[in-house]
Amino acid sequence: MNNVLEFRPKCPHVESLSDCREALEPAVMKIVSDAIGKGYTAAEAAMVVADIADDYILMLSRQPRH
């Protein structure tokens, strides 16, 4: 899987994002693998994971900042 972070400009959050991706990617890949085991295609599973993440980002954007 390509690491999108390598194409981003250097900023203070890149290390943190890279560490977070390293920590979470195996769990996401397991979710996709489990979905494939239940009969969904890899593309379907990946799209649903992305959709859930997008919904969560939108929910976070509506919360007041402290």
Features:
66 residues, mainly alpha, 2 helices, 70% helix, 0% strand
Question: What amount of the residues lies in strands?
Answer: under 5%
Oligomer: single chain
Indicate the low-confidence ranges by residue numbers.
none
Radius of gyration: 14 Å
Shape: flat
The separation of the N and C termini measures 35 Å
Listing every helix as H and every strand as E from the N terminus to the C terminus, the arrangement reads HH
Main sheet record: none
Contiguous helical run count: 2
* Mean pLDDT rating: 87
- Summing up helix and strand content along with how strands pair, one would put the structural category as mainly alpha
Q: How many DSSP E strands? A: 0
Percent helix among the residues?
A: 55-70%
